[in-house]
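Researcher: Structure prediction, please.
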Amino acid sequence: MAASDRREAGQDSILEPLCFPEQQAVDALQRLHPEPLLCLSCSESTPLLHKDLLLKHLLLQHKVVIADVKLIADLSKYLLYWKGRFLEQPITDFCSVIKTNSTGPVEKQENYFLLCDILPEDRLLREKLQQKRLCGFSWQEEVLEQQQQERDDGSFQRLCMFCSDVFAGNRSSLLNHMAREHSFSIGLPDNIVFCNEFLDTLQSKLDNLQCLYCEKTFRDKTTLKDHMRKKAHRRINANNSEYDRFYIINYLELGKTWEEVQSEDDRELVDNDDDDDWSDWQAHPVSAVCLFCDYQSETMEQIYTHMKDAHDFDLHKLRTELNLRFYQQVKLVNFIRRQIHQSRCYGCEERFLSRADVLRHIAAEGHVMKLPDVSTWDQPQYYFPTYENDALLCTLSDSDDAESDETNHSEDVPVIAEDVSNLRALRQTSVLNQLLKKRS
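Model: Predicted structure follows.
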C-alpha cells in the first residue's frame, strides 16, 4: 500500500538499475544444473542460480556456514550428501562450533556451525565431486604423465585462432603468441593439459560465431571480433566448468581454482597492449533501443530516423534549439526513459496505467516534443542511466559542446601578451622576490 501511495504521489519508484531485454545465460545454467539446492536442516530449496539465498537462509535460520562454497564442484550433490548425514548424526559431530559473544551473558551467546574441509569426510567429498566434474580423470599420475608428454612434444603444429600464423615445435610458442600479440591468454603453457582438445573446443566456439567469454552468438565473424575487442572479452569464461579439466591445478590442489592460477599467469606476461594485433577487426556499432518502443538498430542514424518518422521525436532538433551540452543530453535521455518506464508523460507529468496508454497520450496530445522546464530534468540524478545497457547514451553528440567551449574560451578569457621589455624591473617587483626578501 505504501508503495502504491508513493506512485500515486508521483515519486520515483525505480529502486534498482534496469536492463533492456537481451539473451542471457540464465536458461543455459538452469538446463545444465536442474537439481535444486536443498537446505541441510529443513525443506527449504532454491535453484542453483539463487544459491546466495540458500546460503543466507542457512546462516540466519540454522546458524550454518559452509566454507569455500565457490570451490565445491557440485553444490547440489554436496548439500544432498550432508543433509543425509545430518539426519543420521548430530551436526556437532561434523562441524566446528563458533561461539559468538563468548564473554557476554549466556542468553546473548549464539553457536554457529562451520562446515569445511578440515573435516576429512568433507575434504574427501569435495575431492570426489571435483574429480567427477573433471570427466572421469581420477588418477593424478595419469594426468601428470599426459601433461609432461605435451610439455616435451616437439611435433606440435597449429594455426593461430586470430591470425594466419602457423606455429610448429612446442605448444608454448602458440600460447605465448596469442597472449602477447592478441591479448588472449588461457594461462602459462605449463599449467595446461590436453592442450589440443582445449584449443579445439575454443576454435569450435569461434567457428560457431560464439564469444568465448559471454558465450553469446553473433551473426557473422566481423561482428563477433568487434564485440570481443570492444567489450574486452578476449578471455574465456571462468564460470564455465567445461574448461576445468584443461588446467592441471584442478587435479593437484583442491583449494585453488584455475582462474586464480590464470590471473597469476596474466601478471607474469609482458604488458604489450600497444602492440595488440587486431588490425583485421572492423568496428561495428552496438545495438540501441528507441526511446518510445522496442525498436532496435545497430545503426544510430536508423534509430534517430525511426524516432523522427514513427514518433515525431527529433533529438537533433532539441539539441540545437535548446543548445544542449553533452551531459544535458544524457540527463534528458535518462529523464525521458524513466518517465516512460513509470507510465508518465514527460511533457505534462500525467500518470497512466500502462506504457501503451502514456504513448497514446503523448501522440494524441502532441507532447512528443514538449519538454517541461529545464530545472525538472537537468538534475544530477539523471546523470545515472535508467537502463544500464542503454547504447543510445554512447552516441550522443558533443561536437557542438566542444565548439561552444572554444568560443567561450575565446570570448571570456583575455589573452595577455608577454612583456619582456624590462626583465630586470619584473624580477625586482615580483611577488616571489618580495617574499624572498622578507624571509632573508
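Model: Residues 200 and 317 are 52 Å apart (CA to CA).
Researcher: Thanks, that helps.
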